[in-house]
């Protein structure tokens, strides 16, 4: 896992697999890396490899094309272009890109599912928390 104190951007959808993701103090689980255990982060998390465990972030979690999370994902924003096998809770929004496969229940006030995405589970959409 790479953790950098500087900002980084994943602008190339072919490389990031998840479109435009900008992060401060972000962490990357690179392609080919298998992590067994849970991740808790303050900044963005990009999963291009495999995580066998839960992933939580106060910001954004992106599962890139080829990325796999087998566990619960909890973040303000979640973007899935790869595979998520587990429940997810996004306090702001959840986006499933056309290449996404999600098998689990989702809870979010806002969801976008692009054509081609696979979603097997239940969706609960509570009212969004008021902006401060």
Blueprint of the fold:
Elements (H helix, E strand, L loop, with lengths): L1 E2 L4 E3 L2 H4 L4 E3 L3 E3 L4 E3 L2 E3 L3 E3 L2 E3 L2 E3 L2 E4 L4 E3 L2 E8 L2 E3 L2 E9 L4 E3 L2 E2 L3 E3 L4 E3 L2 E2 L8
Parallel strand pairs: 4-7, 5-8, 6-9, 7-10, 8-11, 9-12, 10-12, 11-13, 12-14, 13-15, 14-16, 14-17, 15-18, 16-19
Antiparallel strand pairs: 1-4, 2-3
Give the strand content. Answer: over 45%
Given as residue ranges, the uncertain stretches (5+ residues, pLDDT < 50) are: 1-23
* Helix count from the secondary structure assignment: 1
Distance from N terminus to C terminus (CA atoms, Å) equals 33 Å
Class from secondary-structure proportions? mainly beta
Give the mean pLDDT: 84
Radius of gyration: 13 Å
Number of strands: 19
Sheet with the most strands?
11 strands, mixed
Q: How much helix, percentage-wise, in residues?
A: under 10%
Series of secondary-structure elements, N-terminal to C-terminal: EEHEEEEEEEEEEEEEEEEE
Number of domains: 1
Shape: globular
Q: Would you give an account of this structure?
A:
The chain is built from one helix and 19 strands. With 132 residues, it is mainly beta. It has one domain (2-119). The strands form three sheets. Strands 1, 4, 6, 7, 9, 10, 12, 14, 16, 17 and 19 form an eleven-stranded mixed β-sheet that branches. The longest helix is centred in the first third of the chain and has 4 residues, at 13-16. It starts with a strand and ends in an 8-residue tail after the last strand. 37% of the residues are buried. Mean pLDDT is 84; it is low at 1-23.
């Amino acid at each position: 896992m790479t953790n950098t104190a500087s900002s980084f951007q994943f602008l190339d959808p072919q490389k990031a697999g998840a479109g435009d993701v900008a992060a401060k103090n972000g962490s990357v689980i690179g392609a080919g890396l298998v992590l067994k255990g849970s991740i808790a982060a303050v900044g963005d998390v990009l999963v291009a490899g495999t995580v066998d465990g839960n992933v939580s972030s106060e910001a954004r979690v992106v599962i890139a094309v080829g990325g796999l999370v087998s566990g619960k994902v909890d973040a303000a924003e979640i973007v899935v272009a790869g595979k998520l096998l587990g429940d997810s809770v996004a306090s702001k929004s959840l986006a499933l890109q056309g290449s996404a496969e999600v098998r689990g229940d989702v809870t979010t006030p806002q969801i976008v599912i692009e054509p081609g995405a696979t979603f097997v589970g239940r969706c609960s959409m509570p009212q969004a928390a008021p902006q401060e």
